[in-house]
Amino acid sequence: MVSCRAHRRGLTAHGGKSTLHFKAQVDAIRGARAEEKETGRPAVPDFETFCREWLKQPLAIHQLRMLDVLEGRELARIASVDEL
Predict the structure, then answer these.
(1) DSSP string computed for the chain
(2) Cα–Cα distance between 17 and 12 in angstroms, integer?
(3) Are residues 72 and 55 in the same domain?
(4) What angle do CA 77, 82, 84 make, to 5 degrees?
(5) Please, are residues 75 and 62 in contact by the beta-carbon 8 Å criterion?
(6) Do 50 and 44 form a contact (C-beta atoms < 8 A)?
(7) 33 and 52 housed in the same domain
(8) With 10 labelled, which of 1, 2, 32, 78 sits at a CA distance of 20 to 30 A?
């Protein structure tokens, strides 16, 4: 049976030689990890900003309302159908 570590080494060696895109991604990750060791981790923003900017998945209005409830804020006002 092949260990996970051996499998990862094989995947990196194979993918790094045959796929330039894969190699560029691995190099970017390694660079980011090295930078993180020097400067520390970046501050994580609030959940709404994290979803919108980092995950590229803005929260839907029902999710924003749930977040408001969880964080103890006033509920976001939504225009009624008549006001649109």
Answers:
(1) ---HHHHHHHHHHHHHHH-HHHHHHHHHHHHHHHHHHHH-PPPP--HHHIIIIISS-PPPHHHHHHHHHHTTPPPPP---GGG-
(2) 8
(3) yes
(4) 70
(5) no
(6) yes
(7) no
(8) 32
Which structural domain range is residue 61 located in?
A: 47-83
Phi-psi region of 3 (alpha: psi -120 to 50; beta: other; left: phi over 0): beta
| Separation between Cα atoms, residue 58 and residue 70, nearest integer Å | 18
Task: Report the number of distinct structural domains present in the chain.
Answer: 2
Task: Give 6-60 pLDDT, tens digit per residue.
Answer: 555 555 555 445 678 888 899 999 998 998 888 888 788 999 999 999 899 999 9
Verify that 35 and 58 share a domain, yes or no.
no
